[in-house]
Amino acid sequence: MxxxxxxxxxxxxxxxxxxxxxxxDIRATRRSDFVNNFWRALAHDPAQLRRTWxxxxxxxxxxxxxxxxxxxxxxxxxxxxxxxxxxxSHTAGARAKGMTDAMLxxxxxxxxxANETNRLANxxxxxxxxxxxxxxx
Amino acid sequence: MxxxxxxxxxxxxxxxxxxxxxxxDIRATRRSDFVNNFWRALAHDPAQLRRTWxxxxxxxxxxxxxxxxxxxxxxxxxxxxxxxxxxxSHTAGARAKGMTDAMLxxxxxxxxxANETNRLANxxxxxxxxxxxxxxx
Amino acid sequence: MxxxxxxxxxxxxxxxxxxxxxxxDIRATRRSDFVNNFWRALAHDPAQLRRTWxxxxxxxxxxxxxxxxxxxxxxxxxxxxxxxxxxxSHTAGARAKGMTDAMLxxxxxxxxxANETNRLANxxxxxxxxxxxxxxx
Amino acid sequence: MxxxxxxxxxxxxxxxxxxxxxxxDIRATRRSDFVNNFWRALAHDPAQLRRTWxxxxxxxxxxxxxxxxxxxxxxxxxxxxxxxxxxxSHTAGARAKGMTDAMLxxxxxxxxxANETNRLANxxxxxxxxxxxxxxx
Amino acid sequence: MxxxxxxxxxxxxxxxxxxxxxxxDIRATRRSDFVNNFWRALAHDPAQLRRTWxxxxxxxxxxxxxxxxxxxxxxxxxxxxxxxxxxxSHTAGARAKGMTDAMLxxxxxxxxxANETNRLANxxxxxxxxxxxxxxx
Amino acid sequence: MxxxxxxxxxxxxxxxxxxxxxxxDIRATRRSDFVNNFWRALAHDPAQLRRTWxxxxxxxxxxxxxxxxxxxxxxxxxxxxxxxxxxxSHTAGARAKGMTDAMLxxxxxxxxxANETNRLANxxxxxxxxxxxxxxx
Lengths: 137, 137, 137, 137, 137, 137
Prior knowledge:
6 copies of one chain form a homohexamer. Chain A is mostly helical. Chain A has 2 domains: 8-61, Up-down Bundle (AhpD-like); 62-124, AhpD-like (Up-down Bundle). In chain A, 64% of the residues lie in helices and 0% in strands. In chain A, helix 1 (17-30) packs parallel to helix 3 (46-60) and helix 4 packs across helix 6 (101-124). The first copy, chain A, is elongated. Chains E and F meet through helix 2, helix 3, helix 4, helix 5 and helix 6 of E and helix 2, helix 3, helix 4, helix 5 and helix 6 of F. Chains A, B, C, D, E, F: GO terms for molecular function: peroxiredoxin activity.
């Protein structure tokens, strides 16, 4: 059994009107009654809850990149930072958007390879090739 | 002017036959005469050069994910780890595969947002929702 | 001379009305004509610029913690992540809010010590003491 | 049930005189009989135990910054590095020094925001503004 | 009880011929019938399993550094990144190659000290001494 | 030309007696007149300078591990964290203790490989094998 959270999760019953409004928007946006623990922990600061939810909603919306690609990027960063909660939640989120096992294995292969070559480049202090530099303004 | 690399870059003239063979494969694979500095630094250990190149080539090849998506993931991880060389080189690589400015801004927005929420989840020790857990085998 | 940014900085002349509105709010909030490079780089995505600025403004405003304490935390995290830009910019920001050299040296001493003991705890997999666990809900 | 530590925790009964002397100083300094697991794990190397305890005691003592501010910085770094032990122990330590729930939520908001903007600055390779640079000696 | 893995572990019975061949090489190389969970998780992508195993085998083989020293470096990096699995598995691997408790405590002391001084150098932006720079090619 | 340090480096002329005493011990310990920039930056807080120097001296001294092995670990961690100063200074330090180019290439290969497999283990949430767990006390 894992340890309890630092602050207790806020249930629907204990939610203030400000918190309830955000929970309602989460439900409406996702077309699901489920509000996951991350938001219930953040609910101890209703303004932070709203700010974080609004920005996540905007960042993850379809744009120049589709929502599945964005979830894959989230998984890659969460594996790099070793966030257990985010690894499980965004893997589930990506699956709901169509990620297959083969895609997951490739996301992790690329993320892991980047973590490897990042350290080779840093450890050898490789100078950036002129060909890679953007033009100076 | 930035600092010199830890080990000098290996030029075509100084390349041993083993190194030259890898450089040739880089050129053939990319259909370009250009061999960038990362490989010229790794060339001090020809076996490591070959191993790293072969694995990067395999990981970045088209598969369940297309090469552009893989470059975007590389950028996200490199920004997370703050690898200057990798940020410049993979941004250039992604552009060559079709990445627009708008796509780059979204990759970084997602990567940065993941870095933010990873720390909120970790700092509050949010328990993983049962709904996100894979079935036990 | 350092490398050019990945995307050119957006000058006042090149700013779209949406970008200009954010720049104006930065100036009004800080009571200064100066808009630093971070915002000029983000301006390539006006929605992201606004979102990031609004959230930074809210997070760094006086609340349960005063603005100077918040700048000190920003410095500690930026040193941990090795963000050169953020180290210079938030050190300057903290000084403007009253940070002395002695305070800076202590911020870095604490941040560095946390980075040290974090790895001792992780490397030895020290179990969390019952006395430190929050009560279960 | 979590995994056992890499090395067993050293109990009072098993403590060598050198270890016992450090445990006694921990108790005297904190005016509490409690010696937490971190020190009991480090006790496998008595010289390292003493060195680490002496430096933590010195770094966390009142100085240009007060002890509560130092605990807040410790929390921010520990959340950034994802050290479970340190997150629980320093959250408890900060509470004992007066940290409220509202303060904790703000510490994490600032730490998380720094983690976000660090990656935007790194990913875009934003050049440091001249205005932020210290004068050259 | 810890959470289930993201993808189920591949048992000997479920292993495809490609996977079985890698498992057999792991057993032959280590002269042991034991195939640990890391490889059973990677087995969902047989090409990635083979590539990762072949490169780990090559990197960890005796060379300019002996295998025990390589395991110590693995422990230091895994503690730095806070990889629970890798901390336990490489500590066990190092012990099998002769690591004593005293050696483990010193590895972690050095790794932790590097994590500390890395942040002091970064936070103060200490310029690299000319004496430390390699000669320019 | 790189940016100036956050605080000016303390020259021998400007060193207080407390700082001078540490500089003298650095010189005596290393049998060299050279005091590198790291210590000159830390000298703004003489107590922190002494504490950091004393602990680095103790941690890096011969013990269960020899000084060269310790330098290799320092390089591996510094490459992982991307500390430019530490990469250059500890590479120079390791060379002075006998590190060859071949050894350096292997240190970085192991460190990079650990960075890669750490993320595969984290991203797949691989459960720790019972065989790797230490006995419960």
